[in-house]
Amino acid sequence: MKKDSYFVGFLVCLGSIVVAALVILAVFAFFKVPFSDNMKYFLVAFVPAIVLLRYYAKNLQLMQTSKGIMITLSLLLVAFIVFLVRSHDVALS
After folding, report:
1. Which of 9, 10, 80, 93 could cysteine-pair with 65, CB 3.0–4.6 Å?
2. pTM of the entire structure?
3. pLDDT tens digit string along 58-83?
C-alpha cells in the first residue's frame, strides 16, 4: 500500500499488531500456556508496527502514512500499558 494518508497508516499499524497478536495467541494455544497470566508478552506484538514505521518513513518517504502509524502505535501502546498496570500483570516497582 503506497498511498500516502493517515488512514492507510492506521490500517497498516492496526493490521500488523492484530496479526502479531494472533500469532502469539496461536503459540500460547499450541503450548497450552494460559494467556491471561502472560499478557505482558503481547508487548512483542508492537514490534512489527515499529519496523513498518521505519520502513514507511525512511524507505518509502510517505510521511502522512508514517504519522498515522506513529499516532496509532502511540495510542495503542499507552492503552495496553495502562491495561497491564490496572490488571496487575506488571509490577510498578
Report:
1. 9
2. 0.87
3. 999 999 999 999 999 999 999 999 99
Instruction: Name every residue whose Cβ is closer than 8 Å to that of residue 38 and which is 6 or more positions away in sequence.
Output: 28
The candidate with the shortest Cα–Cα distance to 28, out of 36, 89, 15, 88, is 36
Residue 10 makes CB contacts below 8 A (sequence gap 6+) with 68, 69, 71, 72
What average pLDDT does the segment 52-61 reach? 94
**Sequence-distant (≥ 6) Cβ neighbours of residue 90 within 8 angstroms:** 40, 81, 84
> Distance between CA 43 and CA 61 in Å, rounded?
27
